[in-house]
């Protein structure tokens, strides 16, 4: 494979209608045999991303929204940490969405996300997102009751309507200069078991364990159904889903990094060129500073 973008393209869904989750193997590694084989690709991706992010910031027109969704222990946090490791922290905003507060429940389901969207020139990362509204809230319908929707509006059409509203929001964002990239880190149930056990067996990882993780694991089938429907309904050209095989952390990181690099390269970013007046000022400033550093006979006079 000549370019890392191939690792991302293979898992990109831009038209969800035919999508089936069972067609993606969580153990897929894009033909790479080992973590070692991926090392050079990942390093290159990190370096490219650092450069591209600086141009994104300097250009100050586009913004990038990275949405990360996954079951517990699929590796969202580690992916953010590794993929963004070379990037200037000033250009990145990570927002984690937990169970909504009372204030958040007093607003529509998109409200808290809209407030957290990235500014132009920035990469915003949503660690979980408004997609929880068609995942956890769908699996646990009692959460919907807490949202205080007027009874007349909470109909059987609600999930379809949420998909429509999400699609409309993402189209709006795309039309206004936000590149929307969505990732589902697809881990297998067996690998999740291994990772949860690993957390329980290592005292330094106990803090990562939440007893509700097991309850949610018990609803695995329902979650997978909700994920599949979500991807089928919201994968579009302007806001594609990437269904990333995540049983191997190193591969998931590589594929996510490749997808972000690919999208940024597609923007053909360049450092802004100064106009004639600014160029004249730059020349004058250089001359003044040069004169200050190495005084010439003329400058001393
Ligand atoms: P980790 O993977 O490290 O455990 P996490 O993202 O799972 O990190 P937690 O604090 O464990 O972080 O979980 C956040 C919880 O908030 C999840 O169970 C998620 O389903 C829940 N949540 C997020 N958004 C909503 C929402 N809109 N309504 C209800 N629950 C939500
Ligand atoms: Mg959790």
Can you give a write-up of this model?
- 49% of the residues lie in helices and 11% in strands.
- With 301 residues, the chain is α/β, with parallel strands linked by helices.
- It has two domains: 2-270, Rossmann fold; 274-301.
- Strands 1-6-5-2-4-3 form a six-stranded mixed β-sheet, sandwiched between helices.
- It is globular, with a radius of gyration of 23 Å.
- The mean pLDDT is 94.
- Magnesium ion (MG) is lined by residues 72, 210, 213.
What is shown here, in short?
The protein has 301 residues and is of the alpha/beta class.
Any key phrases for this structure?
single chain; alpha/beta; Rossmann fold; 2 domains; 14 helices; 6 strands; binds adenosine-5'-triphosphate; binds magnesium ion
Helix content: 40-55%
CATH architecture annotation of the largest domain: 3-Layer(aba) Sandwich
**CATH-defined superfamily of the largest domain:** P-loop containing nucleotide triphosphate hydrolases
Shape: globular
The first-level CATH class of the largest domain is given as Alpha Beta
Rg computed from alpha carbons, rounded to a whole number of angstroms: 23 Å
In terms of topology, how is this protein built?
Blueprint: H1 5-9, E1 12-13, H2 35-59, E2 63-70, H3 76-83, E3 92-96, H4 102-105, H5 111-114, E4 123-127, H6 136-139, H7 141-145, H8 158-175, E5 178-186, H9 189-201, H10 212-218, H11 220-234, E6 241-245, H12 249-265, H13 276-293, H14 297-300
Parallel strand pairs: 2-4, 2-5, 3-4, 5-6
Antiparallel strand pairs: 1-6
Helix pairs in contact: 2-12, 3-12
The site of adenosine-5'-triphosphate has 16 residues, from helix 3 and helix 6.
